[in-house]
Amino acid sequence: MNKLTLALVAHDHKKPELLAWANQHKKILEQCNLVATGTTGGLVADEIGLPVQRFKSGPLGGDQQIGALIAENKLDALFFFWDPLNAAPHDPDVKALLRLCSVWNVPVACTPATADLVVTSPLFLSPEYKPVKPHF
């Protein structure tokens, strides 16, 4: 069985929420390949003890590196706890990442509640479930 590849991303004010969520769902996340933007990935590895492939920090191109995984059909879900109340200098990159998830039918969770529903779905780790991918 191939492991799912999940991306973990969080803006600065949302990093504690993502860490608490990852800790709560550690047993599920251990069954997946994790990738993350730089700082978030370091925190998940150090504080939760999960192995994470780290990309650059979001503002330095990490969001775009994750976007490339989506475009190459190498990402199964994105957990992006973004901060809607604080402007980010790389906001266009954030919007592009979310847009790619919609274009390629990749599940994306932006809040702990949505992330809970995604990872606890009976379909989440099911090898039989294959989301429909568009053909352009």
Rounded average pLDDT: 93
Order of helices and strands: EHHEHEHEHEH
- Fraction of residues in helix: 40-55%
Q: Name the CATH homologous superfamily of the domain at 1-5 and 39-121.
A: Methylglyoxal synthase-like domain
Low-confidence stretches: none
Shape, per Cα inertia axes: globular
Overall number of strands: 5
The profile of the biggest β sheet is: 5 strands, parallel
What is the radius of gyration?
Answer: 14 Å
Strand order of the largest sheet: 3-2-1-4-5
What count of helical segments does DSSP give? 6
* CATH architecture designation of the domain at 1-5 and 39-121: 3-Layer(aba) Sandwich
The top level CATH class name of the domain at 1-5 and 39-121: Alpha Beta
Helix-and-strand structural type: alpha/beta
At the fold tier of CATH, the topology name of the domain at 1-5 and 39-121 is: Rossmann fold
**Strand residue content:** 5-15%
Cα-to-Cα separation, first versus last residue: 28 Å
Keywords:
single chain; 136 residues; alpha/beta; Rossmann fold; five-stranded parallel β-sheet; 6 helices; 41% helix; globular
Walkthrough of the structure:
The protein has a domain of 88 residues: Rossmann fold. It has a 5-stranded parallel beta sheet with strand order 3-2-1-4-5, with helices on both faces. The protein has 6 helices and 5 strands. By secondary structure, it is α/β, with parallel strands linked by helices. Helix 3 links the parallel strand 2 and strand 3.
